[in-house]
């Protein structure tokens, strides 16, 4: 059945830019544009490309097979390849050097696998370039100021309560490390880091 065949191909290879598809960069800094692909049927002579705003090619690479590293066919001089096939999990990420305001826009990571009759898969990431990183918080700050400092008071109160609670936990749960470990794991997750390692170390609860 032709329909089933197309469905199987659609599931064979997946391209992703991670948990979020937006990246913010400081003007004149270097920024990582992440992209990885996964395939359940393997690949041979896989071709991948990066496009800016759908039409401008900025990187073109090829990967012979799982055991070989990607090779460059063409790239924009400001684009640096930082991925790996053998060391990392099919990572085809790039770094855009000396970011300018004109670099803001849509970046598409496109992958074609001959084993899938050159079916094309892609993922998109949006780049925002700012003058100063503090500007990213300006909207929030203006909202807080606009609500006559009410939210600031709530925020400070929340932080104080959190400190007091953590202090009480530390004092009352002296010998029990589970609280501290899982709390640290949660904090890591909030900061965008995987907290799973910390959580795995927590001893099983009775």
Tell me what you see in this structure.
The protein has a domain at 14-130: Immunoglobulins (Immunoglobulin-like), CATH 2.60.40. It has helices at 2-12, 138-146, 150-172, 178-190, 196-201, and strands at 13-16, 22-26, 31-33, 36-39, 46-52, 56-63, 71-75, 79-81, 94-96, 105-113, 119-130. It is α+β, with helices and mostly antiparallel strands. The protein has 5 helices and 11 strands. A 6-stranded mixed β-sheet has the order 2-11-10-5-6-7, with no helix packed on it. Strands 3-9-8 form a 3-stranded antiparallel β-sheet, with no helix packed on it. Residues 181-191 have a biased composition (Polar residues). It is found in: Membrane.
Quick take:
Residues 181-191 have a biased composition (Polar residues). The protein has 206 residues and is an alpha+beta fold.
- Please outline the major beta sheet: 6 strands, mixed
CATH architecture of the domain at 14-130: Sandwich
Tally of separate helices: 5
Helix coverage percent of residues? 25-40%
Contiguous uncertain segments of 5+ residues: 1-10, 140-148, 172-201
CATH class of the domain at 14-130: Mainly Beta
General form:
globular
State the CATH superfamily name of the domain at 14-130: Immunoglobulins
| Mean pLDDT across every amino acid position | 73
CATH names the topology of the domain at 14-130 as: Immunoglobulin-like
SSE string: HEEEEEEEEEEEHHHH
Q: Hey, roughly how much beta strand do the residues contain?
A: 25-35%
Rg calculated over all Cα atoms: 23 Å
Helices and strands: which structural class? alpha+beta
Question: Strand order, biggest sheet?
Answer: 2-11-10-5-6-7
Number of beta strands = 11
Distance between the termini: 53 Å
């Amino acid at each position: 059945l032709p329909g089933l065949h197309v469905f199987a191909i659609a599931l064979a290879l997946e391209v992703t830019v991670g948990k979020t598809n937006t990246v913010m960069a400081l003007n004149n800094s270097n920024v990582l544009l992440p992209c990885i692909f996964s395939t359940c049927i393997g690949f041979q002579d896989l071709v991948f490309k990066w496009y800016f705003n759908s039409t401008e090619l900025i990187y073109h690479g090829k990967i012979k097979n799982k055991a070989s590293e990607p090779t460059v066919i063409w790239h924009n001089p400001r684009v640096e390849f930082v991925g790996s096939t053998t060391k990392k999990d099919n990572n085809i990420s790039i770094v855009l050097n000396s970011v300018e305001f004109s670099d803001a826009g849509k970046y598409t990571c496109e992958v074609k696998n001959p084993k899938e009759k050159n079916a094309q898969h892609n993922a998109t990431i949006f780049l925002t370039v700012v003058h100063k990183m503090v500007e990213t918080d300006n909207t929030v700050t203006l909202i807080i100021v606009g609500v006559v400092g009410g939210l600031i008071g709530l925020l400070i109160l929340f932080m104080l309560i959190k400190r007091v609670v953590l202090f009480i936990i530390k004092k009352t749960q002296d010998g029990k490390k589970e609280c501290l470990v899982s709390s640290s794991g949660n904090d890591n997750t909030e900061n965008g880091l995987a907290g799973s390692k910390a959580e795995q170390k927590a001893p099983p609860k009775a």
